[in-house]
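The protein record quoted for completeness.
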Amino acid sequence: MRRNPLWRIAILMALLFAISAVGQSNPSFAQSLVGGEAKTEAIVILVPADLSEAVDLPATSSGHRPTARTLGSALKLARTLRRQSAEPVSIVIELSAGVHRLKEPIELTSDDGGTDAVPLIIRGTSSGTATLRGSVVLELTSLPSSHLTKLTDKARAAVQAYRLPEFVRSATRVDVPRVHDRLPDLIPFEVFDAAGPLIPARWPNEGFAPATSLSVDGSGTKFALKGANYSAWADEPDLWANGNFRWNWNYQTIPIVRAAPADAALELAAPPQFGFGSDFRIFISHALSELDMPGEWYRDRDTGTLVVWPRPEGGPPLEISLAPHLFEILGARNIQIENLALERVRGSAIKIEGGANIAIRDVTIRDTGGVAASINNARESGIESCNIARTGEGGVVLSGGDRPSLTPANLYVRDCRIRDFSRLGRMYRPGIRLDGVGNTARGNYLCDAPHTAISFSGNDHLIELNEITSVLTDTSDAGAIDTGRDWTGRGTIIRNNFLHDLRGQGEGFEVKGVYLDDFTSGTTVEGNVFLRVEQPVFIGGGRDNVARKNVMINSEPGVHIDGRGMTWNGELVWNTDRELRQRLAAMPISSARWMKRYPHLADILSDDPARPKRNTAEGNLFVSGVPYRIYPEVEESGQALQQPLTPSEIGVSSPAKSRLDALKTARDIPTILGEDILSAAQLQGLPYDRMDRGIILPQINADEGSTR
């Protein structure tokens, strides 16, 4: 229904009258609204979660705290108040405890930001948890009779049917294709109960199905699986294959266009990126016949029905994600978002493009279909003291700074707990990704992921005081901290981090601590602690890297250097169409600034580029592990490799194996190793007690709400 234009005039008149009334009863408040001298008191706009009792007008009976029906209308009111003031106005939008639902993102632009002195603050109340949720509640309906024959007796007795919103019913597919490290399109929707996301009905219920045969018939799309139920899948219109089709570091999701019982084969919509391997492992998803356990669902597009086997711990209601994002901050400055829970969204909870001085603090972000938050082309902005869990495609992405001029962006993610951050895209979806120039990951705790924890590209980043454990759990040839294929990506410092209990989990799997892959150069790895880490520092053919004053316990080989450009990977060096050469050509390596900052880079193509040179390993302590693995093609005279420091080399006895095996925290290292060893190695000054981020940061469970 369209409202009469006079209604808008009436609302404006009422707004002005209410502001005037507040001014009569509290002159200092009114002066702050209209630009008077008294500006010390912030204007707090309240947004109740109970929409039925809220209004859109300032309320004089609640301590002169304006009230708005929704967050969107609160922002409109804030703009009005700011326009009426001749001076900067301190405005706080405070959301009450409870659920605030969004179907579209809240968009903040340059019109919404504050100033350095008085930023716009959007926060949750200090009493209870204010939750922004991008989902809608589903309504029960009857189960279509056509589904009964495909379900087991047990499933028929357990499942429930829900009526789907039109946007979900009309979605062409229930998932999106994923290819290696490329971020996919937004997932069409996800389903949630109180315990978190549910999954499309899959086979097998856990793990992967082994391949029995491949039929690469020119298209490279046909394959067979041992135990596959081809007959039951034959008429499935939206079936998916998910997994590692060739390499255990390459994860894809691909639609299946045909299940052929006569051929005992499945046919993909497109061939896998690297083709099939003989030991590929995948699972099949979104088949009604496989809906056989709690927590699974199936969408029937024809009837507009969602069939769900509820989880006992989930409970009603059931919800489905709708909003693409919760906050889109575009070119804005001086905004703070604090003390909220953000959840159940198809993409990222927070998307920041451009702008400066945007701070996200004390926020819980969970159950996103994309990353938790992304910041692109902004400055002096970041994420701090947040709790991030159960994200679909990664944790936090920071991308900013100008590489040609080496101008830093000073973006940051600090003191955050980030776990279970790659539910959907399982490879190359790190908890923290740093791109550009001069960005920081400091003091974070990252855990529970199948692949990398932190990845970086670009220049002059700082990765320090992070604790990383229980990642790389379902992959091979990957690093907890990972980068690669760029001679120009220099200047990053990785220091004072605590990496522990990182080893390959599958048969033949191997992983790394810090992986300087495929000719990475100019990176410093200093003052870190590696405890029970496979291949702590791995230099894959690069140059000018430094491994200095690290402590490596039950971790081997401590430092690896190979010359892959001279053996199996020379094509990457010499092929001008590959990433290494293209990235080199894209940067002004002969400019004065680059030559001063990276003096060995300008002449790299005339300096035997396939050969690793000037890598340094010095002052590292190796306890119970092989110190070095230097491949034969690497000229040790071209590196600076110090005699390894071991207890026997220092002249002291090594701690007993049982004591090393019992070591769990960085802060206990001085006690377990002993001051004699650390003093002799000149490593007693490392900040061991500050490396245990899992202990230092608040113990917050993702299901408990805000970090406050």
